[in-house]
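Pinned message: reference record for Carboxypeptidase-like regulatory domain-containing protein
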Amino acid sequence: MKTKLLLLLVFILPIVAIAQGRSRQILNGRVVADSLKVEGLSVYNVSSNIGAVTDKEGGFTIYARPKDTLFFSSVTYRSVRLVLTERDVLEKPLIIRLDVNYIMLDEVVITPRTLTGQLDKDSKKTKTMLITSGIDSYKVIETDIPRPKANVNTALPSSVTGSTLTGVNFGEVYKLVFKKRKRKDAGEIYGTKDAKPFSVAVKERFTYYFFTQMLKIPKEEIGLFLNFCDKGKESYALLDPKKEFELTDYLVGKSKEYLEKDK
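Predicted structure (tokens):
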């Protein structure tokens, strides 16, 4: 009896070890919501801290495996949390259906002063107020305002230097480490002491597909792009897991600035 039990354990243990050590694979999916286009929706793997964004057709690609939890969030649609199964991973593509997040108004008041749509009539009925600061704009234009001279670092974009005519504040750009402290009303906040730099943390959180296909950033320029996005405390605060959607929007906006600056 003991021999049979020992043999059974010998066969079962390797199978369990293989199942637990199964690596994540690329999961292709598509998000749909009635007839609306689902673009720019955040797809976040809670189990691995990896995120992606849907394209114009609602498609996305992310590393995942069975039992991983995917979180789909957007302002327009209701958030959905999905625990992947073996069947979900095998589907190509995995279809996710979302509901539109409708906002119901408590009350709509229609007054007798409703506009007719005719500009000449509506402008005469609408009361206006003249606002003036008392400053002569012509004198301001003619005034020669002295501007301080500073060394220009042309290797960095104007969004980092603050202007094409000013120098770089390296103390603010390279403040990558904050100290964690307690906030009385909101718990912990994120700082940069004993923490990873912004560029390293973001690169670990998002896939190469997100940078090259969604943001159109060349693979060899991902590091430069993340340095371009690093704004010290302002950007580092977005690494809070609760601000995953805001971080994604921030990277999408910065990618457009980065691609436009060399044109």
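Pinned by admin. Summary line: The beta strands are 25-32, 42-45, 50-53, 59-64, 69-73, 80-83, 94-97, 182-183, 187-188.
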